[in-house]
Amino acid sequence: MKTYTENDIKLNPLEALREEHTEMRTALSKFENILKKIPAGVSDSELNEISEYLNKDVEVHFKREEDALFPVLGNYIGIETGPINVMLIEHNSCRELTGDLRKRIEVKDYKSAASAGKALIELLSEHEDKEDVILFQIAEMQLGNDEKQDIMKKMVTIN
Ligand SMILES: [Fe+2]
Ligand SMILES: [Fe+2]
C-alpha cells in the first residue's frame, strides 16, 4: 500500500482512500487471474505474493480506515451500529478469510486455497464499492475541512 509523507497531510483523506481502493482493485484482478491457473500453472511464489498483499497492504488500508476515519465519522453516525459497524464486521471477515487462505497455501491445498481466495476477492471488492458509494458519500456530507485534515494527519502515520 502506498505510504504518505508529511506533504500529503493537505490531501482529502476520502480521495486518498478512494485511490487506495483503485490500487486494491488492480491487485485483486491480477490475483483473480493467478487463482484461475490453479492447480496446473501456478507457483508458490505467486500465491505467497497474494497472501503477503492481503496480510500487509490490505491490513494497512483497514487500519487507516479504522484508526483515522471511523472514529471521527463515528461522532456523527455512531460506531456500534449502522454502516461503520457493518464495515468493521466485513474487515474482520476479510481478516479471517486471509488467515484461511494463508493456511491452505502453507499445506499446499491449492484447490481450497483457490476457493478461499475467490471468496475473499469477492467480499473485498463489494466492501470497497460500498465504502465508495455509501460511506464516503456520508463522510463527504458530514465532515468539515478541519476534521478531514485531522484524519489525513493520522493516516500518514499508519504504515
Ligand atoms: Fe474498509
Ligand atoms: Fe476501504
Describe this structure in words.
- The chain is elongated.
- Helices cover 79% and strands 0% of the residues.
- It has 5 helices and no strands.
- It is an all-alpha fold and 159 residues long.
- Helix 1 packs antiparallel against helix 4 (110-142) and helix 3 packs antiparallel against helix 4.
- The longest helix is centred in the middle third of the chain and has 34 residues, at 44-77.
- It has helices at 13-36, 44-77, 83-106, 110-142, 145-155.
- The structure holds fe (ii) ion (FE2) (2 copies).
- Residues 17, 21, 61, 65, 128, 131 line the site of one fe (ii) ion (FE2).
Task: Briefly summarize what is shown.
The chain has 159 residues and is mainly α. 79% of the residues lie in helices and 0% in strands.
Average residue pLDDT: 95
Structural class: mainly alpha
- Number of DSSP strands? 0
SS element count, helices: 5
Shape field: elongated
Strand content: under 5%
CATH architecture: Up-down Bundle
CATH first level: Mainly Alpha
Give the N-terminus to C-terminus distance in angstroms: 8 Å
State the major sheet. Answer: none
Rg result: 17 Å
CATH superfamily: nmb1532 protein domain like
Q: Helices and strands, in N-to-C order?
A: HHHHH
The helical percent reads over 70%
Q: What's the number of structural domains?
A: 1
Which residue ranges are poorly predicted, with pLDDT under 50 across at least 5 consecutive positions?
A: none
Ligand identities? fe (ii) ion
CATH topology: Four Helix Bundle (Hemerythrin (Met), subunit A)
